[in-house]
Amino acid sequence: MYFLGLAALVYGAVYLVVSRMLFRPLRYPGGKWHTQAELGARDVWLRTSDGLRLHAWFLEAPGSRLVTMYLKGNGTNLTNRLGHLREITPAGSSVLILDYRGYGKSQGRPTERGLYRDADAGYDWLIGTGYQPGQIVVLGESLGSAVAVDLARRRPCAGVILECPFTSFSALAGTIVPWAGRLFASGFNSLRKIAGVHAPLLIIHGDQDTITPYAMGRALFEAANEPKSFWTVEGATHIDIVQVAGPLYRARLYAFYESILARSGASAGTPT
Q1: Above 60 in pLDDT, residue 73?
Q2: For the chain, which has fewer Cβ within 10 Å, the N-terminal or C-terminal residue?
Q3: Which of 74, 119, 95 is nearest to 238 (CA)?
Q4: Considering all CA atoms of the chain, what is the largest pairwise distance in Å, rounded to the nearest integer?
Q5: Is the distance from CB of 257 to CB of 264 less than 8 angstroms?
Q6: Residue 4's CB: how many other CB atoms inside 10 A?
Q7: Cα dihedral 241/243/245/246 (nearest 10)
Q8: Among 134, 119, 156, 169, which Cα is nearest to 19's?
Q9: Range of the structural domain that residue 74 is part of
Q10: Residues whose CB is less than 8 angstroms from the CB of residue 44 and which lie 6 or more positions away in sequence, other chains included
Q11: What is the CATH number of the domain that holds 246?
């Protein structure tokens, strides 16, 4: 009985650690909501296929033919992505950033299947607004990279950007809780799905990332279809890619957007 009790205790402890890795939502009023006015973002309300109401921000880049759907990581909410949002629009793309179910002002509770439905709701809103699939770039950060891969293999898009991605949740859990972590985690398997993505791909990864190891980004890149490119941000960790990259971040996004538009004979103009 003693050993059964000990085993149950260990199981519960590992399960708790692994499960808390996945979703760390910050609900309203928590967050930096004052930044909305600073960014000039307008509120957007989305409806998922299972009836939930999601909150999003839309930032317009005047004159741009592209829109980037930003699928964020697992922590906080959309108000904490100021650094990225400041770079995307000047690089030449409007942006829609949504809060997954259970985050910010969005209804519901986060699950893997739910996040896929949330991404579909954002994509459908963009199509309903008048954007064509060839104008939509999907950017997924950390956990959002898995959501982005799943969306891009099912829905046509102009391009995909994956920032500090991981191969699968099981593999990621194994790096946090060696050996045992893999037994308690499943899903979000981008390595299995990446072959279904045929849009131009840019992977961005910091070489000092200890949360989603750099090697995972490289493994996804090797498994992906052409055209593809990989940008190593030297010295960057999991949370400071924009800051460490500095002006190069905007320039790299601009170059990627330009490459997409060149395929359609258009131009994004000069980055601001």
Answers
A1: yes
A2: N
A3: 74
A4: 71
A5: no
A6: 8
A7: 150
A8: 169
A9: 2-264
A10: 55, 56, 57, 58, 96, 98, 125
A11: 3.40.50.1820
3-state secondary structure of 204: strand
Q: Judge whether 10 lies within some domain.
A: yes
Amino acid at 244: V
Position 241 in a domain? yes
12, pLDDT greater than 90? no
Confidence band, pLDDT 50/70/90 cuts, at residue 172: confident
CB 163 within 8 A of CB 140: yes
pLDDT at 183 over 70: no
Summarised one tens digit per residue, pLDDT across range 220-260 is: 999 999 999 999 999 999 999 999 999 999 999 999 999 99
Torsion angle, CA of 45/50/51/57, rounded to 10 degrees?
A: -10
pLDDT at residue 10, rounded to an integer: 43
Closest CA to 133 of 100, 156, 107: 156
- pLDDT tens, residue by residue, 114-147: 999 999 999 999 999 999 999 999 999 999 999 9
- Alpha-helical regions (H) of the chain: 2-22, 35-39, 82-88, 112-129, 143-154, 169-176, 180-183, 190-193, 214-223, 241-245, 247-264
User: Is 272 part of a structural domain of the chain?
Assistant: no
Claim: this prediction has a pTM higher than 0.85: yes
Q: How many CA atoms lie within 13 A of 268 on its CB side?
A: 27
271: in domain: no
User: In this structure, what token pair is assigned to residue 51?
Assistant: 């009836």
Return the structure tokens found at 25.
Answer: 């939502």
Burial 133-159 (b: 16+ CB within 10 A, else e): ebbbbbbbbbbbbbbbbbbbbebebbb
Q: Indicate the number of domains in the chain.
A: 1
